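Reviewer has doubts. Consider these tokens.
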Amino acid sequence: MTVSRRFVMMGLAAGGLSACTGGSGGGAPVLDPGLRPQPNAGWSAWVAAFQPRAQNAGISPAVFDRAFQGAGFLPGVIERDRNQTEFTRTLEDYLAIAASDQRIALGRAAMARHGAELAAIQGRYGVEAEVVAAVWGLESQYGTRRGDIPVMSSLSTLAYDGRRGAFFEAQLIAALNILQAGDVAPQAMVGSWAGAMGHTQFIPTSYLQFAVDFTGDGRRDIWSEDPTDALASTAAYLARSGWQTGDLWGMEVQLPPGFNIGLTGREARRASGDWAALGVRSADGGALPDHGSGAVVLPQGAAGPAFILWRNFGVILRYNNALNYGIGVGHLSDRLRGEGPVRAAFPPDAQGLTLADRQDLQRRLTASGFDTEGSDGVVGRKTEAAIRAYEAANGLPVTGMATAALLARLR
């Protein structure tokens, strides 16, 4: 994985957009005993066998010893690796978290605090400040959830586990090179369960390739409270991946009546002028701007919103190759710029509930004493647990499902 081939496809690595949210995307991380080093003879033997390979890759024995001092096997990392696709979200659910009112407000405040740095970064790399801030917001909720798991422990656990052993061993070698270069001390090299680090969640190989020392202090420091190097590194990554200054990532569009949806899809690219000739317009009914060749997509089918995706969208996907993530970054950047929410309605879910229905259900459950810990309309673990508790307390079959019948009963 470079940052462009994330293995956390629908939930951001350090918890910025957690796959385990229930009613809300907020909340402090729960201390998990499985994320504390535990004795494991197999892991210890693997580390001993790995040391000569690390030295052959140029890692000094002293650096290796310091890096692994206090490191250990983390069973919780294996559990997360096995279950990372447990939740898949519709675009509606994803945007409800990624571009929530709270995330937008926090983002605008963060941009105000770091406006001078973001302006300087934009000036050097040509990536708009709102885009850099949107990546920051999705990856670590503007630095508030950068991850606190020791990277040497997490990466060595995953390499030892062997499911993607060669990949994680390469990340481990890269992490040791970062330590050897003196950019960070071993105890400060922390991140997500999968080894992504800092404000914008770089994995070690991507750090080595793209991270920059924007502050000029001699270290490419993406871990500290100061986000400057991390934000500049993200801009450098996007710029080197082909970002076109001034071009839009994409936008919501209107399709004309009778439009042939067989023309849609990420691979079905046409010139903007050709789309306009077919009747595609901006979401407000205006003329479609020309940002070159683009694709029209319908993430939730013909009954939901339509988007046109231009070249810069593909650059965002280099950071995380998931459609929802790319639209999430783009849409959040638009909201941070002052634009409005998605205009078109999303279709009801499989149970016939709209987002407003699910929000109403969460509010009513909470008011009845079954706290969903938020009312964003996203049915995750907390909402499902509240439903199960309500069903059990009222003598109903325990399903944990948000249904129209349940909402009608609560009303």
